[in-house]
């Protein structure tokens, strides 16, 4: 019986915390730099400033080296589970996102939960332990800054998790080492309670409001950092969501980003394009990018070959069907709007060796991650600017004129005309224009599903798309009020009996 308990706890250690005496962290190994015992026999997590910086760098490496959950799988949820895309392949792990047949056994959601919780544990390790570092060269200002960067990372992780699953455990501690004497006392460390959606958002808000005071300022030459601007962008997104909705604060933080120097990049192709020889990204660190993961020769972006061709290595991994295939419905909207610029940057056609959704000789692919050296932009200013327009339409201080001006600014950047007067002066029509603008501007950037959820449009849009989009796989279940959250992985529920499955699964 004792062995069974230890086995369960060992598994929980991997999922919940990176501090467990029964096993190693799944991504880092302990070392005499980051682990040790002081002269009094107490565990030392970070021996000195160098160890802290090493761990902080490990957190940043997550943005480059572990793209599967925070980018690739998030695209599957936001694009293929919406009207923007088909699953792309017929594999059992991805097709349910297209035909609405997801359940708790889905392997994609299972790995995502595990990796998000490892991310949380990695952030907690720094947040919990940095103040106990005895190295005098680690100043108070540095402690506050490094802690703030980890808090922003933790807030980012929880924002993704809460939008996917809603009620999830909020873990802000490190699990204590397990001994035969304290195994009962530390049970809650490894099997945490399930927090409400509101409590998760409150923790996100708390982390960001504390972090924005001490995080580094925006660096126009390096958009890979967890800066004050990243915190402000995330706060704008958080306050647009229903649990903490405060549209006045959405406007406030959007305006602060403008004061930080952010704006729309004049040439839309600078965001996702490549140089003339297809040997490198066209630009990094644009004025529009708030946070991005960057890739260079020798350490390229591997998810490219999951989505289409790698233009820096044209035939690499192009013998099997790709994920996130643009839908006919989305393509029709681009065409009806005569949106040539954004369509050209979002969708590309190649001949393919498969015909799952289109004829193989003219097959569309998503195009915003097109080489091993393109950045993945996690947050960009156009998203926040359009959220400001949403706040001006739906918030307590309605301003149709300013909202229309924002939408026009986004449209004119891609050579589209300003909105007609009949739309500009009608709140409902202007809101419809905004929704379409977000769909076209942010296609294949992981926003569409979450927009539909925020607008409470899931049933209206998704139950009708199967009728007008003949390329979609047949719908298995209708979308309803229980569809706004995805199922918590069954394996997680089996390990922690204190967690409850979301309704409808």
From TrEMBL:
Q: Where in the cell is it found?
A: Cell outer membrane
Name the principal localization, coarsely classed: membrane
- InterPro entries recorded for this chain? SusD-like_N (IPR033985), SusD_RagB_dom (IPR012944), TPR-like_helical_dom_sf (IPR011990)
Signal sequence, renumbered to the chain: 1-23
Pfam families with a match to the protein in the record: SusD-like_3, SusD_RagB
Q: Which PROSITE patterns match?
A: PROKAR_LIPOPROTEIN
Q: What is this protein identified as?
A: RagB/SusD family nutrient uptake outer membrane protein
